[in-house]
Amino acid sequence: MISVTISEPLAQAAISQAKVSHRTIDSQIDHWAKIGKIAEENPDLSFTFINAALQSRNEVLTGQTEPYLFD
Fold first, then answer.
1. What is the spatial distance between Cα 68 and Cα 71, in angstroms, rounded to a whole number?
2. CA-to-CA distance for 37 and 35, rounded, in angstroms?
3. Deepest in the core among 1, 28, 55, 66, taking most CB within 10 A?
4. pTM
5. Are 28 and 21 in contact (CB under 8 A)?
6. pLDDT of residue 50
């Protein structure tokens, strides 16, 4: 972990969004950074797709999925 300096408006936006999203301020900024990194590396993907993929990944990592059974 390292410390970084961010602008006051960005810090205030992170504080506000963190409350809404039930995240810490650090995890909110980390979330935004992940989305930004993925968006830069994959400019053809929409925010909606990126966000859904991150949510799906989190569900798998936390064991919130069920195997799909083929008939």
1. 10
2. 6
3. 28
4. 0.78
5. yes
6. 97
